[in-house]
Write a structure and sequence with these properties.
This protein has 540 residues and is an alpha/beta fold. It is 65% helix and 6% strand. It is built from 25 helices and 6 strands. A 6-stranded mixed sheet has the order 1-3-2-4-6-5, with helices on both faces. Strand 5 and strand 6 form a beta hairpin.
Length: 540
């Protein structure tokens, strides 16, 4: 057994190193990547203003500078916590308020910079390590190996880095899922030993309520827990099941105030989630799912059209599949069933509707984070079992697998840390390139409206554009009154009808200077005859 003790000591040293590396990269270059569309809405909620108030004050056709946006992106004395909650209630009811209230306190203490607000997520991400350790100790009982391997894998998981550097609630959601799951298993363990106590289930109730107040899809995690408890009790209404149902009901009742908000603002909720109804071919869905699975372990910002993605995605799919198979073969059903339900139940309500009715719900990695946690637990068990095996060959296999995963994670971290944008920025992915184009102009004007993704992307660009850039923002699609003083005029993502109306009204010609899958940047130029007239007038 001496070789196992030596291996465990080496593993612990490796965990310390990986933890330090993981912590370093979580806080490194926090402000480098574009502050994207959704993050600007985080800042808007923190400010306490609503999007409608913003539209009234700056989407009015006047010429403004980037400083005009700052008021709606910072915590200020004009608005309080109640305004933050009201802003969410009326415009974003699908986002419960817990993270946003914490964020408002955070920026109130430390400031409103991009680095500060993203550092909140980075600090929250550190709670993942004690949380996953606790969960693994409860799930795998006395196995120290599994808990410590889990910490190592979480420390260098690319998907965790993405959300640890984003000013959104998803990293907090991961923490609450882990705490809620661990507290459930603890309550079940103590209940089975006859140590039933209201405090044990009270902890689960509190963590479940916190999970609900962090993200709405926590309901599927709660359903997974319910299926697990009832199934492992062999569908009998035992004392344990009754205690669980009471604790779950208490957690649900604690969330009823926000459920009432959702009911009162159901139309706004429906319109805010309309984007999920977009139709993609089945082939695109499958390729995206495979790519998402590989990003748990390696993420070089490649799309599925990249050759490298075609190579690695089948490998990681097979690896994940074998890990789950190995888990189910080698562990008690109370262990593997918990992990399988955590993987399957939160994913099915997203994947099945996309397959049957069409949509892109399942293409949002953040919605599948509970399933990714379950996958990581299965992989953790496989590696830990091999590292702790009496067979030298098995130990070498475990060491090789873990070494490859560590290499993939570290390479991913290195690439991520130097990038200006990332796949997770979605509809704002091209904003750094757009900003470079506009900033090259001598005296530019950027014109846009408040429709679709334009509203959030204008705010995102305000963080990247230089002070010389001015804005003319239109509510709806009225024809703007464009001054002649600007050397370059750009039009951000207009509808074809609106663009042609501007062309006709001002005798402009327009051409695309940037395009991607989400939007277009057009440049307006006066027709040659109009340029001659203006030049002649200037000479006179």
């Amino acid at each position: 057994m001496s070789h196992l003790k030596l291996t465990l000591n080496r593993l612990r040293f490796l965990i310390v190193v990986l933890l330090l590396v993981g912590i370093f990269f979580r806080f490194f270059n926090l402000d480098r990547k574009v502050y994207w569309h959704d993050e600007t809405f985080t800042s808007l909620r923190i400010s306490g203003y609503t999007a409608n108030e913003v539209r009234q004050q700056i989407f009015n056709g006047r010429i403004i500078t980037k400083e005009s946006f700052a008021k709606f992106q910072i915590s200020n004395i004009e608005k309080g916590l109640i305004d933050t909650i009201n802003s969410l209630e009326t415009e974003d009811p699908q986002h419960p308020p817990l993270y946003y209230l914490i964020a408002r306190f955070w920026v109130g203490i430390f400031g409103n910079s991009v680095t500060v607000i993203r550092s909140l997520s980075a600090f929250i991400s550190l709670l993942i390590f004690p949380s996953i350790y606790w969960l693994c100790r409860e799930l795998f009982k006395a196995s120290v190996w599994v808990s410590e391997v889990a910490i190592a894998l979480m420390a260098i998981s690319p998907i965790h880095l993405v959300y640890a550097q984003e000013a959104r609630e998803y990293i907090l959601w991961i923490v609450t899922i882990l705490l809620c799951s661990a507290s459930l298993l603890r309550a079940l363990r103590l209940e089975s030993k006859g140590k039933a106590h209201i405090l044990n289930w009270g902890i689960y109730t509190v963590t479940l309520a916190l999970t609900f107040y962090t993200f709405l899809l926590s309901g599927f995690v709660a359903i997974a827990h319910g299926i697990y408890v009832i199934a492992t009790a062999k569908f009998r209404l035992t004392g344990t099941v009754k205690a669980y149902l009471f604790a779950s009901l208490a957690g649900f009742l604690a969330f009823t105030p926000w459920i009432l908000v959702l009911i009162d603002n159901s139309l706004q909720f429906a319109s805010s989630t309309d984007w999920a109804k977009m139709q993609f071919p089945l082939e695109i869905l499958i390729k995206s799912w495979l790519l998402q699975l590989s990003r748990i372990f390696i993420d070089l910002n490649f799309g599925f059209e990249n050759t490298f993605s075609y190579i690695i995605t089948p490998i990681f799919l097979s690896f994940i599949g074998y890990s789950i198979y190995f888990l189910c073969q080698r562990t008690n059903y109370k262990i593997w069933f918990f992990i399988v339900t955590l993987i399957v139940i939160p994913a099915l309500p997203l994947v099945l509707p996309d397959l049957i009715f069409g949509g892109i719900r399942s293409l949002s990695e953040r919605y599948l984070l509970p399933s990714y946690l379950g996958i990581q637990l299965a992989v953790t068990y496989l590696i830990a079992t091999q590292l702790n095996n009496e067979s030298l060959i098995r130990r070498r296999i475990g060491q090789t697998i873990m070494g490859l995963i560590i290499i993939c994670g570290l390479v991913s971290y290195g690439v991520n840390s130097q990038a200006e944008t990332w796949w997770s920025k979605v509809i704002s992915y091209g904003n750094p390139q757009i900003a470079k184009i506009i900033n090259q102009a001598t005296h530019p004007l950027l014109i846009s409206d408040d429709l679709g993704i334009n509203y959030g992307n204008i705010f995102s660009l305000s963080y990247l554009l230089q002070s010389k850039v001015q804005f003319q923002l239109i509510k709806g699609q009225t024809i703007p009154n464009i001054p002649d003083e600007f050397t370059d005029i750009f039009l951000l993502n207009p509808s074809d009808i609106w663009r042609k109306q501007i062309e006709t009204s001002y005798k402009y010609k327009t051409f695309v200077v940037y395009s991607d899958n989400n939007y277009l940047l057009w440049k307006l130029e006066k027709s040659r005859s109009l340029q001659y007239i203006i030049l002649f007038k200037n000479k006179i």
